[in-house]
Design goal:
962 residues, 5-stranded mixed sheet, binds adenosine monophosphate, binds magnesium ion, alpha+beta
Amino acid sequence: MSSTTPPVSGRTEEEKRALLRELLAAHAARPHVAPASFAQERLWFLDRLEPGSPAYNVSAAWRITGPLEVAALERALSGLARRHEALRTTFAVQQGAPVQVIAPPSDVALPVVDVVEGPAEERLEAARRMAAEEADSPFDLERGPLFRPCLLRLAGDDHVLVLTLHHAVTDGWSQGVMYRELAELYAAALRSEAAALPALPVQYADFAAWQREALRGEALEAQLAWWRERLAGAPPLLALPWDRPRPAAQSFRGAREWVELPAELVQAVRGAARGEGATLFMALMAAWQALLARWSGQEDLVVGTPVAGRGPTETEGLIGFFADTLALRGDLSGDPTFRELLGRFRSVALDAFAHQETPFDRVVEELRPDRTLSYSPIFQVMLSLGPPTPGLALQGAEAQPLVMERWIARFDLTLELVERADGAVDGWLYYATQLFDAATIRRLLDHYRLLLAGMAADPSRRVGEIGLASDEERAALDGWNRTERAHPVRCIHAWFREQAARTPDAAAVSIDGRELSFAELDAWSDRLSRVLRGRGVGVESRVAVCLERGPGLVAALLAILKAGAAYVPLDPGYPPERLAWVLEDCGAALLLTDSSLAAGLDASVPALLADRAAEEIAAAPADALADSADPENAAYVIYTSGSTGRPKGVVVPHRALSNHMAWMLERFPLSADDRVLQKTPFLFDASVWEFWAPLLSGARLVLARPGGEKDPAYLVRALAEEGITVLQVVPTLLRVLADEPGLEDARALRLLFCGGEALPREAVARVLERIHPEIWNLYGPTEACIDATFHRAEGGAGTVPLGAGIDNTRLHVLDGALRPAPVGVPGELYIAGEGLARGYLGRPGLTAERFLPDPFAPAAGGRMYRTGDRVRWNESASVRECVGAFVGGSQEAGHEQQSRPPFTHALTHSRTHALEYLGRIDHQVKVRGYRIELGEIEAALRKHPGVNDAVVIVRSEGAKVL
Ligand code: AMP
Ligand code: MG
């Protein structure tokens, strides 16, 4: 054929066939070496990357009961290989590229292995094991053979036939051809006759040559340009909420889960599709994409579907690797109805099918996605809908598929659906076990059924509005939010007074060996509160505090509360501009500081210098002020970064703090023997419980020396020397402590709280190798009073879950339209309950934006805080694995598509629940525990006259410095 013939694409069917005939004429003269097809070329390259990987072994095992003529079967297999060159093909390299080498026909040997020892059950298990081993044994693409039959003999009339091929010479369609012809060849061999199979008009190598000829020049360019445009800007990865972090390299290990769509459901879906001129396949795919969009939060996603890849009809009777994939891009933007979605998807699918001649490998090459071994390029999820796979019928015997429980997951998820004669659709969802647990996959399939049913029931409904939670699940979610617990609602200083009266002589505070008793602290703070009152401080005023950590700071915080006011922490280390800004914004009645720090502070606010006023304070009466705050009054105002450039003051009432402290001290009781290290700078709300937990329970508050929180060596020493029993750290510091010499000496440490950022299990593991406290992950924004959830941390991979709600806290995981996300599906976390802050000081607009009316509240008027954190509900891992093992073991031998696992939702009643943290949905970051809105930095940079615009990013590597 001359290379000037125009390529096949763009020609009529008749012209294509003529070209094929032309090629056929050249058939006889064809050498035994032929070019590889594009798909073969890819597999050959993959094999070079990972020689002998079984990822592309295609294997099936058949249990054959009844009389079997081994010699006839061997002749039939030889006959098959004689007909199909693909079964005689190996590969070689010519000029750096792989070529097919086709061996002349010869007899195929059928090795027979006896598995005749032991009882029938054991023999079958042994056969199953051997079949799986056979299926996994590597192929040598250069030496071959790439078609490897093997027979296991369990008894005279009981055999297992294992047929293993390399994908480079076969595909799904080929299996059907193979079984059909094998049956005929075997029947003929039994009669010692030649089979009456029609001669094959072409061979696979002809197809490969045809493909190379057809796909070049302008027509190919046009096709590739079309694909390039279609897939431009598509997200390279569909980020589903994996149960485990994605490894750097795919292992291809898989498992599968049965799925069944009853005929009535399919009928309804088909009807809805027909209304939009769409097929059942389009409807199933559109629903699948809608589901994946909800699970991933991605409105733009690509899902693959297989196509036969057999252009000319002459190829239909061939065994060989023709199958290809089409990338179908879904658009879920704008909260579409099913009808709209179908309309959109219909045109995507029709267009894509019209361009299916372009081999997917060429499309990938063209798009040059970032090549990674971690996931497949362009798409990681597949869906197919096809006829049942054909069976094997050997004359005189009965053949049934033998399930080997060896599943290869070339993609993250592959949903293989089959249309049954009775109108039902069923099949298997294959999944990568590196990423997913069985329970998650079952939930995904439940959601798929619910979504399809909802879409079919009312195609004009928005897809996002279709509830995915079962009644049982909704009840479970409600139950998880039933965290009511009746705690007394008190003012913190009143609570402290009760404790001081109980243990007046016990040490309340100590620093560097100096101690202060409960009675002393109570008296000091009472005196100071009277001085504050004398300066006009009362209920609902705010007192800014700028003091270094020390007993004086503790007395000051207590005194401010006793005077009825709220404290506003000012970190002495902060830039003067920032301190001035906060001082002004909070409308402080008074600034409480000392003479060494006052110089850097705004002089316009009246100040009380604690050192200068020592005598005045000492002379004040030490009895309590009578008219003090009630639990609705503010206890503190803590400023956090603001995205528009202005930090905002979060106003927290006593009621919220009282609830937090009551939960904490009940859940983690402290005794007089406990020593709590106070090291968190007091402008973090996490410092709040460090102060109050010991002071409200009679334990000892041990103050780290100023600046000590930045010195890991000092901290580790303090843990040992002070006999600290309770410590809190941000994960960044936990990582550092894990490597710090001397950590083993922190023997008294029994409770280690972590929070403020995602907690990596690996850091937990490293600490637990050296010391043995209970480690707890605490999560909560300042707006929900310190902590909203808690979870016991263990080592492992990934991050520790956030856990369940603390007392009187309700957690809602919602989508963009404030609809609850079902278990397993990511959404934004909203927090409601006792812990909620009053709002942002002097910022009603911003408060209304973040504190929304709570539509799920048990009583009217409830609010919920929008956190900006992406989370999902899940069951705890231990229970999930237990469920998986139980169900996983129930898969029995039987027909691939007909065996139905007897158990599906075993043990679900014993679920335990936890929120999992998935990241932020905005531009808020944590740097060493500091909450920062990148927008605030950008706004500051833009203020500079030399800066037009600014973008701030965070690099996470090497974040080991403190
Ligand atoms: P802050 O107001 O400083 O307590 O910051 C609250 C934010 O820190 C949350 O909204 C989360 O983004 C993050 N955060 C706090 N604790 C955790 C945690 N345990 N795991 C993951 N993120 C956390
Ligand atoms: Mg917090």
